[in-house]
Amino acid sequence: MPGLIIQNAGVTVHIDGVAHRLDPGLSIAAALTAQGRADFSTDAAGEKRGLFCGMGVCHDCLVTVDGRTSQRACMTPVRDGMRIDRQQARPDISAPDLADLMPVPSSLVELGMDLLVIGAGPGGLAAAVAAAGAGASVTVVDERHASGGQFFKQPNTDVARLALKADRQAADGAALIQKARSLGVTILSGVTVWGAAHGEDGRPVISCLGHDGIFYCRPAMLVIGTGAFERPPVIRGWTLPGVMTAGAAQTLLRSYGTLPGRRILIAGNGPLNFQVASEIIKAGGDVICLVEQASAPWSRPVEALSVFRHDAALALKGIKEIARLERAGVKLAWNAQISDIRGDGRVEAVTVSGIGVETTFEVDTVLLGGNFTSSNELSRLLGCAHSVTENGALTAQCAEDGESSLPHVHIVGEAVRFGGAHLAMAEGRLAGLAIAAKLGLKARPDTTAQTKLARAKAFQAALWRLFAPAATPLEPADTALACRCESVAIGTLKHLAVQGPPDIATLKRLTRAGMGRCQSRYCGRTLTELTGRPMSETNGLLAPQMPLRPVPLAALAAEKPEWGGHKRALLPQRPPLPHSEPLPLKEASTVIVGAGIAGLSSALFLAEAGEDVVVLERGFPGGLASGGNAGSLHAQLLSFDHGARAEAGGGPAAKTLPLQRDSIALWQTLEKKLGRDFEMKITGGLMVAETEAHMRFLEEKTRVERENGIDCHVIGADDLRKLEPALSPLMIGASYCPMEGKINPLVATRHVHDGAVEAGARVFDRTEVLSIRRDGSGFAIETSRGALRAGRIVNAAGAFASRVGEMLGLDVPVFGAPLQMVVTEAAAPAISHLVAHADRHLTLKQAANGNFLIGGGWTAGLDPVHSHPRPLFSSLEGNLWVAQHVVPGLRKLHVIRSWAAMNINIDGAPILGEHPGMPGFFNAVTSNGYTLGPIIGQLTANLVLGRDPGRDLSAFSINRFQGVRS
């Protein structure tokens, strides 16, 4: 067999129904590779996938294990009786052979400790040993099922243990692990850290997923030693089964005694590739060619001598490895790179481009090595300061002992920058000693560690000068997939990047690149390159989102008290986004402040009427609430818009119902008129009930809705089952509104924007309105890009509308309300309607691509760095509990993403029309913004133009608020 060097069969595992006897220490990925099964998974587009990163980052190697979907083959050990099946692109949650991923917890555990170390690699273990040696209580969590990290990989099988019996690297790692245990360090393996926040006491709160479910750690001090991962450049064919990182291949070898394939080509940059090639040859493998982007070391004598001066032993080891490869007949291609990988269902051939020469090799396995990227999502989530490097990457700002901008958080090793194990261990030791001192423990300074750190830094600098790529990176073919998770081609990204604004978030929203399981770890660099070099951590880069890794929905579900109303808040003031050009005009008839859906719709209808209209947007069009909502089209009242819990008793919301009905119809009209696909579907909506009291509430609510022109009535359990059989049998009825539906706001907002521009509207992004003053019959507007005079102003600034009003001394009683949404992995169609609950905060729908979008008004917090809303642990738990309570099949899925956006809170109804105390100043603000967007725009355009809006709008006048300044 191609993969396994030796097999000590000890467990029986069923792979696609066929029994296999395997070594009990293997991972599933190693076992499948040993069987010659490179193509054991399926991607979002239905194409074959296999092992890629080998460390749980990419989620390409997903399989179904014992009926549980989306298990990472590289991170899951085999066990006796295990059943492994091919992962389906969209699993059917109604299928009886699929199991819940985890039980719903009765409570969530919290653990306290002096020091929590995240990552059991060289740096993390060294920090743990130093702090524990001084008397600190230390816990280490690591995602792998064996400690040691990428460098100190420990053998997990008898085969691997035999192969590494005399291996110094493995032995040093085992000694460090044993040292930590002997000092009382608690090491928790197989634990995924998926989120982080700061508690009310200022201490970090780290959310973890272990074998038994979710738990939270509340340490006094934190060390982040999450290491780095290989992020190869985009290459056509790099998603084919048989393509993996060099690190993944080394894990197969050193941890499991498994070869990655038969005929192997290694490509990339850096000395690790030579070590991996040497180890493959030693294990009996066949390396056809090693492709290195740098020039041969002997062609760069100055840089080579510098490496020798800093560490002669390591330099000699490298020379010996090169000589060993040449003796083994491995072709060494210096100053070269892969241009293309081909194959039908798996790798079959590779094209290598050198200096003016292209060569094709027939191989079945390609290893891509180098391009190491720090795993800094956790440090960013916590708000540690980072700076942008020359190549556009982020580096944590740390002292020599790893202390970050947050004194209780230290970051060590490759989580800061790629620098090798010796550097990480020196930093880890210094961090552990510094933390012990902060805890009031006796810790002696270690000058030896400081010396080792200086040496390691000098050696790494010399090494990477020697291995600096000589070859200019090749431009990938347009058909090459840039986003591995969502199968988005780089040509698609390039096309939209040229058309749209230079905004990474806009490009993400329009293409879905970066929205998959890996959270943009592989496509993020491509997105930044296409939208311009990042200027800072908060400008030009995607923010990290929880969960940092997919988490079983059921594990997060914890019933919480329903909150009693919106938590009103506004985002803090931030400096205007820079723009290189001043405004190209000095005057406009109508200026709209805000390019959300209300502002863009107003611009569309005004421009179509021939009005000279300009839209000023402080960020990018659709960048806040209009791009951050879940796309529900609401025709009926939500449960908290009727009855005792409703704003202003529910009257304003009820009066808005005809607007919602007509706006949904207008959305349909716009889709046809503009000739664009809004991904809109009228599905009907259900608000489910599970008690007789809920049913009485729905009877009263539907009566109010029918009085206001909404087709909505109550149905019983039998009719409910016919409409949605996947709902829980606890649901005894529902209100049914056939008028409701869903839309994709990510694309619909852009289409309305494009329609407005085509009609003649001018939209200016990165244009912050700094002040407005009355100027005769018009207004003088000062912006971050220059002055502008307007005859009329439309205030469509959403949650910021009150700030715009204040510039003219007006009270516009609009408040921000940060709310969260949650997204699951894609599944086969299971829920066709928009689903809400009569007494719980829930909105739920299934998107066209299979993802479930879950919301319902759960409040969010604030990102400490980006000043954007961010989901809260308690809201995630409560929201997901309600979701799985209503749709039990969701327990079979993972949560892959959450986000939060600033919603708008008024009194349940919009504020429309000219302000009575300021002629020419119009408000166009609503708290049900996306559904109402088109009708708000149409009505506002008519009011601005002095036309009859065709309906009585007095209920939406700002006059309804007593005490408003005018």
Provide a brief overview of the structure.
α2 (122-133) packs parallel to α4.
Mean pLDDT: 93
Radius of gyration: 30 Å
Report the sheet-strand fraction.
15-25%
Helix content: 25-40%
Low-confidence stretches: 1-7
- The assigned structural class equals alpha/beta
Structural features, described:
With 966 residues, the chain is an alpha/beta fold. 28% of the residues lie in helices and 25% in strands. It contains 24 helices and 50 strands. The strands form 12 sheets. Strands 29-48-42-45-44-43-34-36-35 form a 9-stranded mixed sheet, with helices on both faces. Strand 30, helix 16 and strand 31 (613-616) form a beta-alpha-beta unit. The protein is globular. The N and C termini lie far apart (82 Å).
Furnish the topology, listing elements before pairings:
Layout: E1 11-15, E2 18-22, H1 28-34, E3 41-42, E4 48-49, E5 62-65, E6 68-72, E7 83-86, E8 109-118, H2 122-133, E9 138-142, H3 158-163, H4 168-182, E10 186-189, E11 192-198, E12 204-210, E13 213-224, E14 228-230, E15 243-245, H5 246-256, E16 263-268, H6 272-282, E17 286-292, H7 301-310, H8 312-327, E18 331-334, E19 337-342, E20 349-353, E21 358-362, E22 365-369, E23 372-374, H9 377-382, E24 386-388, E25 394-396, E26 409-411, H10 421-438, H11 447-466, E27 481-483, E28 488-489, H12 490-499, H13 504-511, H14 524-531, E29 551-552, H15 553-556, E30 587-593, H16 597-608, E31 613-616, H17 625-628, E32 632-633, H18 651-674, E33 681-682, E34 685-689, H19 692-707, E35 713-716, H20 717-723, E36 733-737, E37 741-742, H21 745-758, E38 762-764, E39 769-775, E40 778-783, E41 786-795, H22 801-806, E42 815-824, E43 834-837, E44 843-846, E45 852-855, E46 861-862, E47 869-870, H23 873-886, E48 894-905, E49 911-914, E50 921-925, H24 929-944
Parallel strand pairs: 1-7, 8-9, 8-13, 9-10, 13-26, 15-22, 16-17, 16-22, 17-18, 30-31, 30-41, 31-38, 34-43, 41-50
Antiparallel strand pairs: 1-2, 3-4, 5-6, 5-7, 11-12, 12-13, 14-23, 19-20, 20-21, 24-25, 27-28, 29-48, 32-37, 33-37, 34-36, 35-36, 39-40, 40-41, 42-45, 42-48, 43-44, 44-45, 46-47, 49-50
